[in-house]
Specification:
The complex is a heterodimer of chains A (304) and B (399).
Chain A lengths: L2 E12 L2 E12 L3 E5 L6 H8 L7 E6 L2 E2 L4 H5 L2 E4 L11 H12 L4 H10 L13 H13 L5 E5 L7 H16 L3 E6 L2 H7 L2 E6 L2 E7 H7 L1 E8 L5 H5 L4 E7 L2 E7 L3 H7 L4 E7 L3 H9 L12
Parallel strand pairs in A: 3-8, 3-9, 6-7, 7-8
Antiparallel strand pairs in A: 1-2, 1-4, 4-5, 9-10, 11-13, 11-14, 12-13
Helix pairs in contact in A: 3-5
Chain B lengths: L18 H5 L5 H8 L1 H25 L3 H12 L3 H7 L8 H35 L1 H6 L5 H34 L9 H29 L1 H20 L8 H4 L3 H4 L15 H21 L23 H39 L2 H10 L8 H25 L2
Helix pairs in contact in B: 2-8, 3-6, 3-8, 3-16, 5-10, 5-14, 6-8, 6-9, 6-10, 6-16, 8-9, 8-13, 9-10, 9-13, 14-16
Classes of the chains: A alpha/beta (304), B mainly alpha (399).
């Protein structure tokens, strides 16, 4: 596999304010890589560093094997970027805006541009100031995609998009990856990352706290188990089992959290008369909440 | 409406950008900046050209005899220092060119400066602030090129405006000159326009150089304050000797001997102004290329009390929003009024000693007694209205 993005102890401070600290990550070609974190975690800072829009305090970043500081233009030529927060030119139409960015890049295939406009159901004849938030986001998405970049850096890409357009967007992402492209997607919407990404990195307070395959994160996470007993609930029998925590008894129902193998719980339950046994695989969101706490997934605003 | 349409073949034809679109339109950053500046171009060229043209027409009709010119010369020569400081030293005001220079020359430079300050502080700063520069800066262009294209577009528009100003100045001399010495040769018109353009760029370049460090508004404020202070310090250097040292440091002081409309040329004095602008503009380009995009130093400024924020109702909030700007404008106009009021009595006395001039003013503004301090103040504040309108227009076009 070829590393498309590689960071080495990448660190950014804004004066005394922390941006990111010692970030080490690698994104391989053909991956959809999710970059997940709460507000202010450092997601946008990381993307801006990869594009050399800001310079690192220390550490290095490479995109396509090119040092981001040494030759950012060579990187930009192959990258499509959607900022997390942007406004474009109020007095231009969506079509004029896209034409402008296409001209700045050069070599944009107008047929593909038109196809994207059609797929996202964007009316290019309206002025940017007249667009809703979702339509503004569509203009940004087409601008990022229209030159068929090898790497897409997308900061909160689905903000403001309705579910139908989100589906179109995910389809376009899949096509991009099928053609050998790579996607680096920052988000605080866990379900979006879960559905879209191959791997996910979780960043909090500027530091990378976890990086793994989405599946692995889920597998490594806990199971929520619910047992319904015919008689009294033997809570003590389960509390001392390995990997079991958060044991709560209510009437004839016992709820518990299991990390790792669920076999000891099954074996213990077999000694009692069980009316029902429910084991639910957690969503990534639940994993994230359990691992990093409620405060880590405040979902308003954007990560910086 | 989702349309299933796969990616077009990579070999599909790619559109090239027509040459004209690279000059005007959406073909390049330069072209788009030129397009965005078209309203500013019309307003600035129209404003500066029209002021010169109208001023020349008024002078031609009001002072069409040698006697009237002599009266004007003696009136101006006896102006109180406070007004001379504000308008500049009168030179050859008995000629059309000299009079135009004295009345409109420095103000034209101030307008051009204000325009350049607003435009050059905003050309990158405003795009950074709204977020569109993130898209532009992620295009394969390089930050130096982005800044240079934006700058080149502003310089092109400035050259265009100055060409029209030179043309209007020359035409004014040709159309409204009625006595010997009134003709304005092309060299004088061009020399005047170059001076106006360079003075504008010099102060605009201060804003351009500072904007990457401190952001748009503080950069514009600092450049504007430097320009106003430079103008006043130079204007009052003869009245206040302590200002001389500081005046020598300003472009107004450097070019004090270059009054082409009044027949005095000092082309070499323009060189340091051009050099200053070039160095600062280059510094601004380099700062934009090297610094973090959109990250500026926070500058602590004195704030108004929290009670003035206006949080109780939409009306309060509207007042709270406008209050700082209103106070700043009020302070500026107040200082201007103070200077003018201090000079009003002396001016009224001089007016009484020049009946022809007094009659001319009475013919234009019937019903006002310009031989009194109050009448004079009324006249000056009409002019102030034009200045405020000009500033407002410049602010509007610069976005």
């Amino acid at each position: 596999m070829t590393a498309i993005i590689e960071t080495q102890q990448l660190t950014k401070f804004y004066g005394s304010q922390r941006g990111i600290v010692d970030l080490d990550l690698t994104v391989e070609q053909g991956e959809v890589f999710g970059f997940l974190g709460p507000n202010g975690a450092g997601k946008t800072t990381t993307i801006r560093l990869l594009l050399d829009l800001i310079r690192p305090t220390r550490g290095r970043a490479f995109v396509f094997g090119i040092d981001t500081i040494a030759d950012p233009v060579a990187i930009h030529r192959r990258v499509g970027y959607l900022p997390g927060e942007f406004a474009l030119y109020d007095r231009l139409t969506g079509g004029q805006t896209l034409e402008y960015f296409a001209n700045l890049r050069g070599g944009v295939d107008r047929a593909y541009q038109r196809a994207l406009i059609e797929r996202f159901d964007l009316d290019p004849s309206r002025k940017f100031r007249e667009y809703s938030k979702g339509n503004k986001q569509k203009v940004g998405l087409v601008a990022a995609l229209q030159h068929r970049p090898e790497l897409l850096l997308l900061d909160e890409p689905t903000a403001g998009l309705d579910p139908l357009v989100q589906q179109t967007f995910f389809a376009v992402l899949r096509e991009a990856v099928a053609e050998g492209g790579t996607v680096f997607l920052s988000s605080h919407i866990l379900s979006e990352v879960e559905k879209t990404c191959d791997r996910v990195a979780i960043i909090r307070d500027g530091r990378l706290v976890r990086i793994d395959r989405v599946d692995a994160l889920r597998d490594l996470a806990h199971h929520q188990v619910e047992l319904r007993f015919a008689g009294p609930v033997p809570a003590a029998e389960f509390e001392r089992l390995p990997g079991v925590s958060d044991v709560r008894a209510e009437d004839h129902v016992l709820r518990l959290r299991v990390v790792g193998s669920i076999a000891p719980v099954v074996q213990a339950a077999a000694r009692f008369e069980i009316l029902d046994f429910l084991s639910r695989e957690p969503t990534l969101e639940e994993t994230f909440l359990a691992e990093y706490g409620q405060q880590a997934v405040a979902v308003a605003g954007h990560g910086r | 409406m989702a349309v299933e349409l796969g990616r077009a073949p990579l070999a599909a034809p790619r559109a090239s950008v027509p040459l004209w679109s690279r000059v005007y339109g959406f073909g390049s950053i330069y072209a788009k900046t030129i397009r965005d500046s078209r309203l500013a171009f019309v307003i600035m060229a129209g404003l500066l050209g029209a002021i010169l043209f109208a001023g020349g027409a008024a002078f031609g009709s009001a002072y069409h005899t040698a006697e009237a010119r002599r009266e004007l010369d003696s009136l101006v020569a006896t102006l109180p220092p406070a007004l001379k400081g504000l308008y500049g030293n009168p030179v050859n005001v008995e000629t059309l060119g000299g009079s135009l220079w004295w009345k409109y020359g420095p103000w034209s430079a101030l307008f051009a400066g204000l325009w350049s300050i607003l435009a050059l502080s905003a050309t990158l700063g405003a795009e950074v602030r709204q977020g569109s520069l993130e898209f532009v800066a992620s295009a394969p262009l390089g930050r130096r090129r982005i800044a240079v294209e934006k700058l080149a577009a502003h310089l092109t528009v400035v050259v265009g405006v100055m060409a029209i100003l030179a043309l209007a100045t020359w035409a004014t001399g040709a159309l409204f000159g009625s006595l010997p010495g009134d003709a304005i040769p092309p060299s004088a018109a061009i020399g005047f326009a170059i001076w106006v353009g360079l003075m504008g760029l010099a102060f605009g370049s201060v804003a351009f150089a500072l904007a990457p460090f401190v952001g748009r508004a503080p950069a514009a404020a600092a450049a504007g304050a430097l320009m106003a202070a430079g103008y006043l310090v130079n204007g009052y250097r003869s009245t206040v000797p302590a200002f001389s040292g500081a005046a020598d440091l300003t472009p107004f002081g450097w070019t004090a001997g270059h009054l082409p409309l009044a027949g005095l040329y000092d082309w070499r004095s323009l060189v340091p102004v051009a050099l200053l602008a070039a160095v600062l503009l280059a510094g601004g380009v380099e700062a934009f290329a090297r610094r973090d995009l959109g990250i500026t130093a926070a500058i602590r400024t004195p704030g108004l009390p929290a009670a003035t924020l206006g949080l109780r109702s939409p009306l309060d909030r509207a007042f709270g929003e406008l209050l700082p700007a209103a106070l700043a404008w009020g302070l500026g106009i107040g200082i201007y009024g103070l200077v003018v009021a201090a000079a009003s009595r002396s001016f009224a006395d001089e007016m009484r000693r020049s009946p022809d001039t007094l009659n001319t003013f009475r013919a234009v503004f019937p019903g006002y007694d310009f031989a009194s301090a109050g009448g004079f103040l009324q006249l000056v504040f009409v002019q102030l209205g034009f200045i405020v309108a000009g500033f407002a227009a410049a602010t509007l076009v610069a976005g």
